[in-house]
Amino acid sequence: MKCENLEQVRENIDRIDGEIIRLIAERKSYVVQASAFKKNEEGVKDTGRVEKVIAKVRARACRQRNANHKKAHAQKKLHH
Q: What is the C-alpha separation between 46 and 34, in angstroms, rounded?
């Protein structure tokens, strides 16, 4: 969305921050549920799983950033 002023930019950033917070809270509730299925502390501290999740999230973020960059570049070409 194209913002007309700094206030609109900040409002959108605040809106997105609120969504992120809500999603992190929702994710945490599932993490807590997952811990109930694990037999011991080692299962809870599954470092292999943590590394896989981090790698997956980084890859998704990179793909999204690249898609956003391509979209912005295409829009810039249309307007010039």
A: 11
